[in-house]
Design a protein that fits this description.
- The structure holds two protein chains of two kinds.
- By secondary structure, chain A is of the alpha/beta class.
- Chain A has a single domain, classed as Pyruvate-ferredoxin oxidoreductase, PFOR, domain III (Pyruvate-ferredoxin Oxidoreductase, domain 3, 3-Layer(aba) Sandwich), CATH 3.40.920.10.
- Chain A contains six helices and six strands, in the order E-H-E-E-E-H-E-E-H-H-H-H.
- Chain A has a six-stranded mixed beta sheet with strand order 2-3-1-4-5-6, sandwiched between helices.
- The longest helix of chain A is centred in the last third of the chain and has 22 residues.
- Chain A is globular, with a radius of gyration of 15 Å.
- Chain B is an alpha/beta fold.
- Chain B folds into two domains: 208 residues, Thiamin diphosphate (ThDP)-binding fold, Pyr/PP domains (Rossmann fold), CATH 3.40.50.970; 112 residues, Rossmann fold, CATH 3.40.50.920.
- Helices cover 40% and strands 18% of the residues of chain B.
- Chain B is built from 13 helices and 14 strands.
- In chain B, the strands form three sheets. A seven-stranded mixed beta sheet of chain B has the order 3-2-4-5-7-6-12, sandwiched between helices. Chain B has a five-stranded mixed beta sheet with strand order 9-11-10-13-14, with helices on both faces. A two-stranded antiparallel ribbon of chain B has the order 1-8.
- In chain B, helix 12 links the parallel strand 13 and strand 14.
- In chain B, helix 1 packs parallel to helix 2 and helix 1 crosses helix 7.
- Classes of the chains: A alpha/beta, B alpha/beta.
- Chains A and B meet through helix 1 and strand 2 of A and helix 8, strand 8 and helix 10 of B.
- Strand 2 of chain A pairs antiparallel with strand 8 of chain B, so a sheet runs across the interface.
């Protein structure tokens, strides 16, 4: 088993922390994990991305040019990573910030108004968790329990009060995905 | 202690603390600043001293001063900052002072950029500063390996009275992986009868210097250094091989590029090409053994680097004309992909027209 995921968006959308959360959860489940950030000047005001690899075996390359899965949180990231997803792969789009349809017919695309949905929970910033919930509902690469346990570790002591909100956002993304995929099939 | 998810830069710092490093003098520069920041918090807590110097030049000379008292000391930087330290590194080599110097390399030449690169290979393995000297250079490929190699770096430094370099790239410094710190005591303090900590009137005064105005005497000092370097060459070369037993074609790569190459080698194997990987762990001394073991039956070697071709020279010297050596590299902070390496490997195996410059 080897999962390669790229998460991309504006700096500040929680792209890096979402990737770290996946890596933590994978580690908690005994998998080999790697997390590689884009750390160039593009982070300042432009797009940022990170690559997460989860594997049952030691990880070779932490750098992935064609991921099986991409989560894009804004329009520039959509444009950049849509062509890079492997055929048969998965693209998850935050349509609150990137409102167009994918031109690809050889991948599965999930559209979700994550920022709007997170806003209704009271925190647009937890859009990343809504998207993560959707990812895990479609592709259970790590368990929800592992994510929630890892959240406690990732959130600094001063932000532990956000635990509940993040958990709600995760569940919201998950239930939204399940209902929309049921409608689609 | 259990598994921790940490950044490469932080792993270097924590591993050094575990190995008993008590003194850090440095100056921040991307992509290794997390190392400096981590030490600023961690060393005082561990009973050590962290000092942010006014420049890289000041920092390396503080390392010289501290090493002269026999304490375990280190500094770290990235390419342009590392260049600034070169004068001090030559002095450390000349005065035979043990210390650890980390270079988390970035794209050059000049100010370049902050992306990963391996274009400081010549600088770290061929001397770099003035005078006849070499410094052991360790190049980890994973964050777990960093922990082992930092420990070995301090041991080698003490054993041979030499500065040691740990060379990584921006990707290694910035990425996160799960690591586990073994419950080992700090590297054993060796008896250092040469330290300048004051004789208190007992015995002859001790002097630590690289200055020697008498030519014959300086030549003797050089001969002593060369004997020491020969001994390091003899005893400290380290490497790892993968699928080399039955391989026809050998990818040679170090550090993070070796990891990317693993994927390419595995794919080539699936496609019926008998490929193997030689990963030098020490860049100086460059490991000769895996080439002696394979060069008489090898159909070809492919050196892959994030440079315009530097380690490939050592590969050619080690193969010594007994097989073809080709090269593929990306420069300026561009990281070669596994697909590119695979493609080059197939060209090498097909005996096709390999782009000698690779760019």
């Amino acid at each position: 088993m080897m999962e390669e995921i790229i998460i991309a968006g504006f700096g500040g959308q929680g792209v890096m922390s979402m990737g770290q959360l996946l890596a933590y959860a994978g580690m908690a489940e005994g998998k080999f994990v790697s997390w590689l950030p884009s750390y160039g000047p593009e982070q300042r005001g432009g797009t940022a991305n990170c690559t997460v690899v989860l594997s049952k075996e030691p990880i070779g390359s932490p750098l992935v040019s064609n991921p099986a899965t991409a989560i894009v949180m804004n329009a520039p990231s959509f444009d950049k990573f849509e062509p890079k997803v492997k055929p048969g792969g998965l693209l998850i789009v935050n349509t609150s910030m990137a409102d167009r349809k994918s031109m690809r017919t050889d991948i599965h695309t999930i559209y979700i108004k994550a920022t709007d949905m997170a806003g209704r929970l009271g925190s647009p910033k937890s859009a990343n968790m809504v998207l993560l919930g959707a990812l895990l509902a479609y592709l259970p690469i790590v368990s929800e329990e592992a994510i929630i346990q890892s959240l406690e570790k990732v959130l600094s002591p001063g932000k532990q009060h956000l635990l509940k909100l993040n958990e709600e956002a995760l569940k919201l993304g998950k239930s939204h995905l399940i209902s929309s995929e049921t409608a689609r099939s | 202690m259990g598994k921790l998810l940490m950044k490469g830069n932080e792993v270097i710092a924590e591993a050094a603390v575990h190995a008993g490093c008590k003194y850090f003098f440095g100056y921040p520069i991307t992509p290794q600043s997390e190392l400096v920041a981590y030490m600023a918090r961690r060393l005082p807590e561990a009973g050590g001293l962290f000092l942010q110097a006014e420049s890289e030049i000041a920092a390396i000379n503080m390392v010289y001063g501290a090493a002269g008292t026999g304490v375990r000391v280190m500094t770290s930087s990235s390419s342009p900052g590392f260049s600034l330290k070169q004068e001090g590194i030559s002095y450390l080599a000349g005065a035979e002072l043990p210390a650890l110097i980390v270079n988390i390399a970035r794209g050059g030449p000049g100010l370049g950029n902050i992306q990963p690169a391996q274009s400081d290979y010549f600088q770290v393995t061929k001397g770099g500063g003035h005078g006849d000297y070499n410094i052991p250079v360790l190049a980890p490929a994973t964050l777990q390996e960093i922990i082992d190699l930092i420990r070995e770096a301090f041991e080698i430094a003490d054993r041979y009275r030499t500065p040691v370099i740990l060379l990584g790239d921006g990707m290694l410094g910035q990425m996160m992986e799960a690591v586990e710190f073994p419950e080992k005591p700090a590297v054993k303090e060796t008896h250092k009868e040469w330290t300048t900590t004051g004789t208190r009137g007992d015995g002859a005064p001790r002097v630590i210097t690289s200055l020697d105005l008498n030519a014959e005497s300086l030549e003797q000092r050089n001969e002593h250094l060369q004997r020491k370097f020969a001994s390091i060459r003899q005893n400290e070369a380290r490497f790892e091989t993968l699928y080399c037993e039955d391989a026809d074609y050998f990818v040679v790569a170090y550090g993070t590029v070796a990891r990317i190459a693993v994927n390419a080698v595995k794919k080539a194997r699936k496609d019926g090409v008998k490929a193997g990987l030689i990963r030098p762990i020490t860049l100086w001394p460059f490991p000769l053994q895996p080439f002696i073991d394979t060069r008489d039956r090898a159909k070809g070697y492919l050196a892959v680097e994030m440079s315009a071709g530097q380690m490939v020279d050592d590969v050619r010297l080690s193969v010594n004309g007994r097989a073809a050596v080709s090269f593929f590299g990306r420069t300026g902070g561009v990281v070669p992909t596994q697909e590119e390496i695979y493609e080059q490997l197939i060209i090498t195996a097909g005996g096709g027209d390999v782009n000698e410059n690779g760019i």
